[in-house]
Known about the structure:
By secondary structure, the protein is mainly β. Helices cover 0% and strands 36% of the residues. It contains no helices and 5 strands. It has strands at residues 11-14, 23-30, 35-41, 56-59, 64-67. A hairpin with a 4-residue loop joins strand 2 and strand 3. The protein is globular, with a radius of gyration of 12 Å. The N and C termini lie far apart (29 Å).
Amino acid sequence: xxxxxxxVGESYECRKTDFARPxxxxxxxxxNNGCIVNVERFYGLDADKIDQVxxxxxxxxxxxxxxxxxxxxxN
Length: 75
């Protein structure tokens, strides 16, 4: 995705190249080379790659697959 399409405060599915599985995370802030994401869901093998103090990781814009629609309500 491109930088302009990313919304701070929204959750996205991210496919980080050095992670075993995609992660779900909320965008905290955008930077020039990527965005800082609060990790909400991840695969156990990737736990050591996430900042242990605040649960954040830097994601490149090209690694963001799309918005996570888990908050949608369908009738």
